[in-house]
Design brief:
Layout: H1 6-14, H2 18-40, H3 43-60, H4 70-89, H5 96-103, H6 115-134, H7 137-147, H8 153-160, H9 164-188
Helix pairs in contact: 1-2, 2-3, 2-4, 3-4, 4-8, 6-9, 7-9, 8-9
């Protein structure tokens, strides 16, 4: 069943085959969580959104139009769930990790290999993630989809339900804003 095409699995799942849907979940869960983690900035939020997306996809599977890719449709469901959750929450929550980072109370690492380089690399990743999270969602989302998830402009347009030209301009603007933010952050450090 693993080698079947998505549309075959979808047909079987719509007909009631839980096993067929499980194959789709196994096929896309890692990619979806990874993509959502970049978009949302939190693994926990990504896992929640992915779970909600798979549940919603199971319920709405009969409405899936086979002219689109299953993953694009699933990603759109997940992002809509995440955006809705964010709008409802609107309360700034800080993880224990962020609190300990801010206070400087981080656990000592037992790894001996190039600790200075590893710390510098971790700091650079943190700065990029911080700058990325400051970009407005409408610009950040297409940039992440293009650069981190490898979507084409056409796939992004389909998922976000916007014209390809809008996708291109939003990605251009996001890149420009990210570059400016990173330049400021690296000058401060």
């Amino acid at each position: 069943m693993e080698e079947k095409l998505d549309n075959q699995l979808i047909d079987e799942a719509v007909a009631g085959s839980v096993e067929a849907f499980e194959v789709l979940v196994k096929r896309y869960q890692t990619r979806l969580v990874h993509s959502l983690e970049h978009a949302l900035g939190s693994r926990d939020d990504a896992l929640d959104a992915a779970q909600q997306a798979f549940v919603a996809a199971w319920r709405k599977l009969d409405s899936f139009r086979k002219d689109a890719q299953f993953y694009s449709w699933l990603y759109r469901i997940a992002m809509n769930a995440a955006i809705s959750k964010r709008r409802k929450a609107r309360v700034a929550t800080t993880s224990l990790d962020k609190l300990s980072e801010a206070s400087g109370n981080t656990a000592a690492d037992s790894e001996d290999t190039a600790p200075d380089r590893r710390m510098e690399s971790e700091e650079n990743v943190r700065l990029v993630q911080e700058a990325l999270q400051q970009i407005a969602e409408e610009f950040r989302q297409p940039l992440i989809m293009k650069e981190m998830d490898g979507f084409s402009y056409e796939e992004i347009a389909s998922v976000l339900d916007i014209p390809v030209g809008t996708v291109r301009s939003r990605i251009f603007r996001a890149r420009r804003e990210l570059t400016a933010r990173l330049e400021r952050l690296f000058r401060e450090d």
